[in-house]
Design a protein that fits this description.
The complex is a heterodimer of chains A (110) and B (115). Chain A has 110 residues and is an all-beta fold. Chain A is built from no helices and 11 strands. In chain A, strands 2, 4, 5, 9, 10 and 11 form a 6-stranded mixed beta sheet that branches. In chain A, strands 1-3-8-7-6 form a 5-stranded antiparallel beta sheet, with no helix packed on it. Chain A starts with a strand and ends with a strand. The model of chain A has no long low-confidence stretch (mean pLDDT 91). The model of chain B has no long low-confidence stretch (mean pLDDT 90). In chain B, strands 2, 4, 5, 6, 9, 10 and 11 form a 7-stranded mixed beta sheet that branches. Chain B has a 4-stranded antiparallel beta sheet with strand order 1-3-8-7, with no helix packed on it. The radius of gyration of chain B is 14 Å and the shape is globular. Chain B is built from no helices and 11 strands. Chain B is mainly beta and 115 residues long. In chain B, 0% of the residues lie in helices and 52% in strands. The chains are: A mainly beta (110), B mainly beta (115). Chains A and B meet through β4, β5, β9 and β10 of A and β5 and β10 of B.
Amino acid sequence: GQSLEQPSEVTAVEGAIVQINCTYQTSGFYGLSWYQQHDGGAPTFLSYNALDGLEETGRFSSFLSRSDSYGYLLLQELQMKDSASYFCAGDDNYGQNFVFGPGTRLSVLP
Amino acid sequence: DTAVSQTPKYLVTQMGNDKSIKCEQNLGHDTMYWYKQDSKKFLKIMFSYNNKELIINETVPNRFSPKSPDKAHLNLHINSLELGDSAVYFCASSQDQGGQQETQYFGPGTRLLVL
């Protein structure tokens, strides 16, 4: 089976940089995705890494290291609206199963 | 235009009842999914379905059954509802690109409360 681990909570202040880590155990892994979910809302796609390295999308970047079974989401210039839960997600068995991590709740303080 | 829509948004019902949640996507995607998110916000896939294959998470009770009248719809039927079924149920869809992970687009969720 597949499992992903993330910290349960992270707190930071506006304007800061925060990194949310994700480690995984899986076989037949295509890549790592990140989703954002605000309270009461639906998960929305943020980023996807199929290859090792850094992918940048505006204030958000995501990193993957397959050799370390590790990835992270980097959020820069934090804003209050970034307060949400962030989920890493990955494949198992080449797309037969899709699993979300437990989620990291990010609180951005003024 | 709403890409993935679900009805109803809220569902309150008694234990033992049978209920359905409807999902429609207008993205032209090939694959649709149902997820359950519990009170601790764990998001677990229940089913994934395209016109070729239904993949069932083995932990899902057989009281839950997906029904797809066509490619744009995947409804979720739940028989004999139990208290533990209370959760938020999300429908999602993705394009079947084969050989890579696909971005999933989620509906707004259906909040089910079983009394």
